[in-house]
Every structure is written in C-alpha cells, then in structure tokens.
Write a structure and sequence with these properties.
It is built from twelve helices and twelve strands. It is of the alpha+beta class. It has one domain. The strands form two sheets. A ten-stranded antiparallel β-sheet has the order 7-8-10-9-5-6-4-3-2-12. A two-stranded parallel ribbon has the order 1-11. A hairpin with a 4-residue loop joins strand 2 and strand 3. Helix 5 packs across helix 8 and helix 8 crosses helix 10. The protein is globular, with a radius of gyration of 21 Å. The relative contact order is 0.19.
Length: 388
C-alpha cells in the first residue's frame, strides 16, 4: 500500500450556539461566554489549578478524543497575558498538567495496545496570536490546551487519499522553507543544545507512520522505556527541553529576519548553542536574508509571517509500537492530526455521532474516574453525564 496522507470524515452534533451580531465566529467561540458553554455541556473534570478536561464537541475522532485546557478566562481577563505554552505555566500547574497527561496516555496505551489497529497521539499546539490579527482562524482564546486522540487504523486505510497540496500538509516536509534550507543546522542545534537521556534521536524510517508517510522531515525522538518512562519526572523535563530548543531556534531566526545582524534574543534557554551554532551559520543567516528580502518586496508575504514561533509538539506511537516525540512549526489552519498525515473533515450529522457517543463517553468517563482517583480533579455534571 502506497504511503499517502488520508482524509477521514468525522460526524459531530451541531452546536446550538448563536454568534452575537457584530462578532466573528472565532471571536465568539473562543470567548469566556462560550467557554462557559464548553464547561456546562462538555466539561468532564476541573481542578483548583484551572485545568479543565472536556469532550471535543467538534472532534477529530469519535473513537477517543478529549482535551485539557488551562482555563484562565476568569482569572486573567487580558487575552495577551494568558499562558499559551508549557514554558509559561506556573511550576505547580505544570506538575499537575504533566500528571494528567501521564494518566491519560497510560489509559490510551492500555485501551489500544495494538499499533496495527489504532493510531494514538497526544500533544499541543501554540495558541497565541502569532499571525496577523486580520487572518481567518486567529485564536483569540490564547489559552494552552492539548489533545488526546485515537484513530481506527482500518478507517484510515479505507479513507480516500488527501490532497497532497493541502497547505496543512506541507508544514514540515519538502515544501517548508525551513526544512529546505536549514535542515542540517536545525538538527545540529538540537544536538548541541539538548542534554537528553530518556529521549533518543529516531531515524526518519522509525518515526514515520507507513500508511501516511508522515511526519516528514522533522527531528524525532524515541521515548526510551516507553510508557514507563512517561511516568518519570525526567521525561517531562526533557519534553520541555525540546520545546525550549525549538523556541530558541525560531525566535533567533525571526529576530534575524526582522533586523539584520540582530543581537541574541532575551531570555534564551540555550545561549551557547545559539551563539556558536545559529549566529555563526551561513545557511541559517542566508535563509533569514532570503525571507527578509521577500518581506521587503511582497506585502502579502510579509503580512503572512508569524513573527513569534508557533508549534505543534506531539507524543505518538509508531508502527512498531514505540512512543515517539516530534515538534513542528505550526502553519495557519493546521490541525495537530495533520502532523501525522491525517486530515479530518468534520460534518454535522447528529444521528451518526449519537451512534458512536455511548462508547466514546464510556471511555472518557473512565479516564475521568482515574484522574479523580489520584486527586487530579473533581467531576463536572452536564446534561449528558453526572459528576461521578
């Protein structure tokens, strides 16, 4: 079977919310009012750290699909002041966040043990407004959330092939400017900057999902020890270290695009590697010049630049059953599933959704029970389920 990205169709129950006059849909759906609706109709669990586990109303998969959001909408009213990535989350919240991730990942590996039958992933995407405010899809929500998703491999095998030119699928492969011109320095920087013991570099062949051929062109790391290692604090520190390295790389790059021969950005995590690898590498600086020159002569191109680094970072299971970590720059409109070559077409179909809903809820409520059991929150009552 040829390795090609797939497009699956996922039904959902239409959301009975009316967008107030004068508001764009993305402005309303990411508002505090809509977040209240999310809690009351889809909320599963919350805790004093403001971490909310919820069912995805417009989900990627009806097999298993939920998210945790750091819901600071009531405690930080300024959207630009909210944490949008793990590196900005207070240590006590991040510890609880990591434990919740570990419990849900543990459930997914237990519930779906066969990589030939199910594709599992967990990860997060940057939600800050790193692209122009006039662009469609700009998330005014500005609150960190992550995804936990399972896909049925038979559904993927039987799905039609996705359009290879879909802009959401060119994020980390041969179409990417960064991978095309800076692949070597990107990898050298990670090797120089990061001190890893649990995460070890994985080859392209080992990290790739054969069915889809994705991820493409991205550095990946295997979790040595699998799900047992995910239970260790050291793993989560290394997972953060990869994000920190990514942020250093792209902050440095865009600072050079913005200003020729710019000094090192403030608050860099790995200043030695930035100074000795990035700021003295001709390929890196040549590419920055290429982008800067393009911005000078093309207003549309300049307006599309995301001057702050946006990312998707995921943990997923490869064909051999090993857990892999990868990270990618995030393009406009990208869904996190597309990092693995899975394009999701959501369609409103209450009947089809409701046929899958009982089994989906049974799994989500079991995850909630396990989180409550280890003191990671309390259940939420909604019209569809009790508080537990």
């Amino acid at each position: 079977m040829t390795s090609q990205p797939r497009e699956i169709t996922t039904p959902y129950r239409p959301i009975p919310l009316e967008v107030p006059e004068g508001m764009a849909p993305n402005e309303f759906f990411n508002s505090t009012e809509n977040l209240e609706d999310l809690v009351h109709n889809n909320g599963l669990l919350t805790n004093p750290e403001h971490l909310l586990l919820y069912r995805k109303a417009l989900g990627h998969s009806n097999e298993f699909d939920c998210s945790i959001i750091y819901n600071t909408s009531k405690v930080i009213l300024d959207p630009l002041g909210r944490p949008v990535r793990r590196t900005q989350v207070p240590p006590n919240v991040r510890q609880v966040w990591n434990r919740m991730n570990q419990v849900i990942l543990d459930y997914m590996v237990e519930q779906y043990p066969d990589p030939g039958r199910h594709l599992i992933l967990a990860g997060e995407a940057s939600l800050d407004a790193t692209w122009p405010l006039t662009s469609r899809g700009v998330p005014s929500i500005r609150m960190l959330h992550n995804h936990f998703i399972t896909f049925d491999m038979d559904q993927l095998r039987n799905a039609p092939v996705a359009d290879a030119d879909d802009p959401n699928l060119t994020d980390g492969g041969q179409h990417s400017l960064f991978q095309a011109y800076m692949r070597d320095v990107y990898r050298e920087f990670f090797d120089r900057a990061l001190d890893l013991s649990i995460l070890r570099p994985a080859s392209a062949g080992a990290s790739c999902i054969h069915l889809t051929g994705y991820p493409q062109g991205l550095p990946s790391w295997e979790i040595d020890g699998g799900i047992d290692a995910v239970r260790e604090v050291r793993f989560w520190k290394e997972y953060d270290a990869i994000l920190q390295g990514f942020l250093d790389f792209y902050r440095t790059f865009f600072s050079q695009v913005s200003t020729r021969n710019a000094p090192m950005p403030r608050d860099i995590y790995y200043p030695d590697a930035v100074e000795n690898v990035l700021l003295f590498d001709n390929a890196f600086l040549k590419t920055a010049k290429k982008v800067r020159d393009h911005c000078m002569r093309d207003a549309r191109y300049a307006n599309a630049i995301r001057w702050q680094p946006a990312f998707k970072q995921i943990i997923y299971r490869n064909d051999a059953g090993r857990l892999i970590v990868t990270i990618s720059q995030n393009s406009i409109g990208n869904a996190i599933t597309e990092l693995l070559g899975v394009v999701v077409k959501r369609v409103p179909d209450a009947t089809a959704y409701e046929a899958r809903e009982p089994a989906l809820l049974e799994r989500l409520l079991e995850v909630r029970r396990r989180l409550v059991e280890v003191d990671l929150g309390e259940g939420i009552e909604t019209p569809y389920w009790g508080a537990g």
